[in-house]
Amino acid sequence: MIKKIKLFTLLVAIPMLITTAFVQTSLNIKIKGSDTVLPLSQKEAEVFMKANGGSKITVIGGGSGVGLSALIDGSTDIAMASRKIKMGEKMKLQDAGKSVKEVTIAYDALAVVVNPQNKVSQLTREQLEGIFTGKTTNWKDLGGDDMKIIVYSRESSSGTYDFFKEHILNNKNYSTTVLSMAATGAIIQSVSQTKGAIGYVGLAYLDKNVKALKVSTDKGKTFVAPSMVTAKDRTYPVIRPLFYYYLTTVEKNVKPFVDYILSPEGQKMVEQVGYVPL
Amino acid sequence: MNTRIKKFTTKLIEGLLFLCGTISSLVVLLIICFLFKEGIGLFQTQPIEEGYIVAVNKNNIVNTLSPAQFKEIFDQNISNWSQLGGNNDSIILFRVDDISNYYTDEELGANFENIPQKISELVEKTSGMIAFFPEKYFDKNFTGKKIEIDKTTLHAFLSNKEWFPTAQPVAQLGVLPLILGTLWVSLGAILIALPLGLATAIYMAEIANKKVRRFLKPVIELLAGIPSVVYGFFGLIVIVPMIQQVFNLPVGETGLAGSIILGIMALPTIITISEDAIRNTPRAMKEASLALGASKWQTIHRVIIPYSASGITAAAILGIGRAIGETMAVLMVTGNAAVIPHSILEPMRTIPATIAAELGEAPQGGMHYKALFALGCILFIITLVINLIVEIVSNRRKKLTKI
User: Which one is the CATH code of B176-402: 2.30.30.180, 1.10.3720.10, 3.40.190.10, 1.10.260.40?
Assistant: First the structure.
């Protein structure tokens, strides 16, 4: 009888031991958050999983806020964010006794786009501020034709909106008449079919249906056109970081994947997806 | 024995039905409770970003500021305290990132441990300064004066005209443009869908021959199965440029585009339900009318429509419900500018579109999150009121027809 039990435990224990050993060498990571970072994380996770058989990485979108609140309540390992963590979220983490680590995994350059029929091809930061805060309302004041400026922006909760407000609008609020679009694709579509339109999109989304403007942040001394080259050498000024946030307690688990993204191979993929490598 | 089993099964089925009914009512109640609990929380919070405070110099005589005044100050449209009833002193803005303009890194300490003290010093030194900084940098010996921000009141929430939930330092939570936008778009949708839908239903039930009807009915029902994103995309690519050209507008993303799309989306509901109602008119009634010498149109107009009025109103309610609550398609075509609309040819922002676009990125449990839930409550109340009105109207009509 005792022998039988021993045999039985052995039979159960051996596979269990094997599985635990197996789990330790492979990763099981959940990533959640910003829809901007989503395509990049998906691509990196795909390639990483192929190279490291047995690893399981789940990538879910939903928005930066969703990712960070999932991090706070512990339902994700990594939160993707296209904006910096907010003070309120930081305090919630602190209250829960958790400390968080921030990693910049890539950059995203923002291009200011207009309709291809528009004569204007360059603007200074000050002029952009005037347009987006509603002080400048006609293209003729900027050297273009006499037509109304139609301003397209992203939704107020998107990280892109915040970034543009901080760096181009000098922290002033957008005008109330600004049209907000839910997705970058919608901005491209609308700008391409509206003559007086202006909007901003990520570099990866640029196509021939819209015209990207040269931008100057030094009061009109130098104008730089957005492209992968100017973004990589940082001469193009409108560029923002994309973040991963994870708890210091799970660092061991997520580190190999984060390191992979930061490696030359991972950064090459950043460029393939259309973002700017570190 | 047999009867006993029968009795038992009846009891069992009755019990099961009761249970199902209770569970579904409970779920609905729970969701409503959750919605209102989160939404009402908004009125207990200050509309400032969580964990931040605003302070001024101790000699400043201004004690409270309204959210609108905050926005004007931080947008640099108000630049002197005298405009706010204070001393004649120009306003100097201070955000915590600006501290490096005043102090070197060494002065702030290696771990920025001196920031609280330095902010306190700076606010004391600069008489016109208004400082916006995290509460954790609030020094114990802070000499300045904390500015009190009024809690959001229901009245302000409903009547303010600006919607900037992420504005810093103080959010602008005015839902009037959103409510008006929702009502305009839905009203437009129902004005388009109801006559069209009703006409189609009458045609299908009374005029069309069997073959046409057999073809038309599944096609219309198919419309209901198309995902709303597809409608939205169709609207953005086809209807928006069309409206822009037809009305010669600078921008095609307007309330009208939303109304048209929603009208199309509400059509299958309205057609299917009102057609069923019309077909339920007893044959005897129709034949009696025709036998009295009434023409086909007179029969439809005088007998069939009054008889099926309650079914048609039900169709209208469900159609309106679909229009008011629809999210994705509207989000894509109405332009979403939160301005008070003056005509249907202007960009508008609806409540469902606002919730859908913003909830994902709003920090959970924060003021913005609660404001979006409060919007959900408003939407719920609007739908409830419309349903009640329709109910009352149809009841009255029933009474009238009986007399």
Answer: 1.10.3720.10
The alpha carbon of residue A75 is apart from the nearest alpha carbon of chain B, in Å, by: 14
Within this chain, do residues A134 and A212 fall inside the same structural domain, yes or no? yes
Q: What CATH number should be reported for the domain holding residue A218?
A: 3.40.190.10
Would residue A256 count as lying in a domain?
yes
Amino acid at A213: L
CB contact under 8 A, A171 and B95: yes
> Do residues A168 and A264 both lie within one domain?
no
Average pLDDT over residues B345-365: 85
Query: What does the block give as tokens for B197?
Result: 């839908």
Query: In this predicted complex, what is the ipTM?
Result: 0.78
Summarize pLDDT for B98-156 with one digit per residue, the tens.
777 788 877 877 667 788 888 888 888 888 888 888 888 888 778 788 887 878 888 88
Alpha-carbon Rg of chain A, whole angstroms? 24
pTM summary value: 0.81
DSSP A195: T
For A27-45, the DSSP string reads -EEEEEE-TTTHHHHHHHH
In angstroms, the separation between the Cα of residue B192 and the nearest Cα of chain A is: 25
Query: B373: distance to nearest CA of chain A, Å?
Result: 15
Greatest mean pLDDT among A134-143, B79-88, B322-331 lies in: A134-143
Cβ-Cβ contacts under 8 Å between A and B: the total is 125
* B52-153: in CATH 3.40.50.1110: no
SS3 for chain B is CHHHHHHHHHHHHHHHHHHHHHHHHHHHHHHHHHHHHHHHHHHHCCCECCCEEEEECCCCCCCEECHHHHHHHHCCCCCEHHHHCCCCCECEEEEHHHHHHHCCHHHHCCCCCCHHHHHHHHHHHCCCEEEEEEHHHCCCCCCCEECEECCCCHHHHHHCCCEECCCCCECEECCHHHHHHHHHHHHHHHHHHHHHHHHHHHHHHHHCCHHHHHHHHHHHHHHHCCCHHHHHHHHHHHHHHHHHHHCCCCCCCCHHHHHHHHHHHHHHHHHHHHHHHHHCCCHHHHHHHHHCCCCHHHHHHHHHHHHCHHHHHHHHHHHHHHHHHCCHHHHHHCECCCCCCCCCCCCECCHHHHHHHHCCCCCCCCHHHHHHHHHHHHHHHHHHHHHHHHHHHHHHHHHHHHC
Q: Tell me which residue in A161, A171, A194 faces B251 most closely, judged by beta carbons.
A: A194
Reported as a single tens digit per residue, the pLDDT across A24-49 is: 456 789 999 888 888 899 999 999 99
